[in-house]
TrEMBL record:
Pfam families: ANTAR (PF03861), GAF_2 (PF13185). Keywords: Kinase, Transcription, Transcription regulation, Transferase. The keyword Ribonucleoprotein does not apply. GO terms for molecular function: kinase activity; RNA binding. Residues 170-231 form the ANTAR domain. InterPro entries: ANTAR, CheY-like_superfamily, GAF, GAF-like_dom_sf, GAF_ANTAR, WH-like_DNA-bd_sf. This is GAF domain-containing protein.
């Protein structure tokens, strides 16, 4: 069996291979990267029995909480508990932009209500929450759970943070790719709609785009949605 560092480097290598083998027909998405990370954490990081990623999305002044790629029911349950109660190691790690370790839930006193629920409903006895910065709209944490107390020493924390850092880069890259693909698809849809309008009304490209823009404003719907309606009406 390899050293702890070697096992985590193996996880990072697998994640990198998954990212680099993507193609236009099988693109790597942010959710794919996160799933690779949580699965890799349970396989390669010593002591980890369950894993998940919690993301907080910023929508203006509002925030939404999302549990992503949990390896089972337990990470999802603990995420929902923290969202409901508004407290917990994951939220503290995100707020403080830090790594937060719980060595032993049986004596943990920082979040009594949360701790009682975890002990009463799961076999989790220690955890590690590592801050993830993904982009300006979303931040989160990689959450690792163990059914044994004191599972995460300094060496394991260092290796887990290395995995989390690589994960953050992968998630950000995948999101940029998703946005780029979405932008290309939007451009193609609007281009098709412009072509239909140009042919139907014998106008040029600029006039067609202005017509679509004016209709979009008048009907209070996005240009992309209107363009799709034009295409659908042409090819019912």
């Amino acid at each position: 069996m390899g050293t702890r560092a070697e096992t985590v480097h193996s996880a990072i290598a697998e994640l990198a291979r998954a990212m680099h083998t993507s193609s236009s027909s099988n693109p790597v998405t942010a959710d794919t990267v996160i799933a690779e990370v949580t699965a890799g954490a349970t396989r390669f990081v010593p002591g980890v029995d369950h894993a998940g990623v919690s993301l907080i999305h910023q929508h203006g002044k509002k925030r939404s909480f999302e549990a992503v790629a949990p390896t089972g029911d337990i990470p999802e349950y603990i995420d929902h508990l923290q969202e409901k109660l508004g407290i917990g190691p994951c939220l503290d790690a995100i707020r403080d932009k830090a790594t937060l370790r719980v060595a032993d839930y049986t004596v943990e006193a920082r979040w009594p209500e949360l701790t009682e629920a975890i002990l009463g409903s799961t076999a989790v006895r220690s955890s590690l929450s590592i801050f993830l910065y993904t982009d300006q709209q979303s931040i989160g944490a990689l959450n690792l759970y163990s059914e044994t107390t004191d599972s995460f020493d300094e060496d394991i924390i260092e290796q887990a943070e290395a995995l989390a850092a690589h994960a953050a880069v992968g998630i950000s890259g995948a999101r940029r790719d998703e946005q780029f693909r979405s932008a290309l698809a939007s451009r193609d849809i609007i281009g098709q709609a412009k072509g239909i309008v140009m042919e139907r009304f014998a106008i040029d490209a600029l006039q067609a785009f202005r017509l679509l823009s004016k209709l979009s404003q008048d009907q209070n719907i996005p240009v992309l949605q209107l363009a799709q309606q034009v295409i659908d009406s042409e090819h019912p």
